């Protein structure tokens, strides 16, 4: 069975990203829908990590997939679609934040991601009420500290600590060298340690 025949006979949801992209470029829009389904929760999580607001993150996520679709012909087949679309997300989220010029105060509880928005989030047992309160307060404190980081450091922390990307993937996403990523994370962690030094 040849490679082309194998792609034809493989169920769409089992195809690699590059194979789906080839189908989209050949005019099969349904294949792009599968790419959207494959990455929408992760893209939302990245946008939300930068913006800290649900509706803004949803708006940016929609814009990401529209922009990615329009620019798909220029996508380099030898690179990862995953990091390419993450880079678009980070850039659009930062642009959105700069244009908005507004800050919203939110609590950790009110912006908790739902299970359909990020697969890593699931039901958790309530446990001891005092411990739950302490964890909530700690989450708020950490988030406030992250918000004080410069944009490039904040993005690096989100991609590494929340999304679990490798240094190489972060470098591709942010359009910089791996050494730059390591430097940004180093200074971000140093700043966070300073900001959180009084937290037990």
Give a brief rundown of this model.
With 200 residues, the chain is an all-alpha fold. 67% of the residues lie in helices and 0% in strands.
Domains, number: 2
- What oligomeric arrangement do these chains adopt? single chain
Under the CATH scheme, which architecture of the largest domain would be assigned?
Answer: Orthogonal Bundle
CATH class bucket of the largest domain = Mainly Alpha
Helix-strand string: HHHHHHHHH
What can you tell me about this protein's structure?
With 200 residues, the protein is mainly alpha-helical. It has 2 domains: 12-100 and 108-121, RNA polymerase sigma factor, region 2, helix turn helix motif (Rna Polymerase Sigma Factor, Chain: A), CATH 1.10.1740; 124-200, Arc Repressor Mutant, subunit A. It has 9 helices and no strands. 24% of the residues are buried.
What's the topology here?
Blueprint: H1 3-9, H2 17-25, H3 29-51, H4 54-71, H5 81-100, H6 129-147, H7 151-162, H8 167-174, H9 178-195
């Amino acid at each position: 069975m040849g490679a082309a025949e194998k792609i034809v006979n493989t169920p769409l949801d089992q195809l690699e990203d590059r194979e789906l992209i080839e189908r989209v470029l050949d005019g099969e829009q349904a294949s792009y829908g599968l790419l959207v389904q494959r990455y929408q929760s992760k893209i939302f999580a990245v946008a939300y990590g930068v913006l800290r607001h649900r509706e803004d993150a949803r708006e940016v996520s929609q814009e990401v997939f529209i922009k990615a679709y329009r620019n798909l012909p220029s996508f380099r087949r030898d690179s990862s679609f995953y990091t390419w679309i993450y880079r678009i997300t980070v850039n659009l989220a930062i642009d959105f934040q700069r244009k908005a010029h507004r800050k919203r105060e939110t609590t950790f509880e009110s912006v908790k991601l739902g299970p359909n928005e990020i697969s890593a989030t699931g039901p958790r047992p309530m446990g001891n009420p005092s411990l739950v309160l302490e964890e909530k307060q700690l989450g708020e404190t950490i988030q406030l500290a992250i918000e004080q980081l410069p944009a490039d450091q904040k993005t690096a922390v989100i991609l590494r600590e929340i999304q679990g990307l490798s240094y190489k993937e972060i470098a591709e996403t942010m359009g910089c060298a791996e050494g730059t990523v390591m430097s940004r994370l180093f200074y971000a962690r140093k700043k966070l340690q300073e900001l959180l030094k009084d937290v037990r």
